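Lest this sound abstract, we let one protein speak, letters for residues, whole numbers for local backbone shapes, and leave readers to judge:
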Amino acid sequence: MRRQLFKTIIVVIVTLSITTTALADIKLKLKRTEDKRSSEEILYFKGARERHEFSGTTPKGKPYSGVWILQCDQKQLIGVSDLTKTYFSHSLQGGLLSGAIFAFN
């Protein structure tokens, strides 16, 4: 009887830990195509952080790609452009995002 109770408790603990781990990470993949323009985005969510990877082509066929990392716990946004080899870091302390994001595009 005691041994069966111990096994049941172990199974419950393992099940809860697996469920918690599975709910902690979320991945969304988006693909879009309009006329001659295509794009792909992948969003990763984990805790207070989000990673947004994007790539595609403009209507003129010019490629673009980059990554945005939103760190809500540190109130910071980081952007990286793969093609131009540039990055920016923007503090979110003041509230809404300023023109730093738009200058990146």
User: Anything to note?
Assistant: Residues 26-104 form one domain.
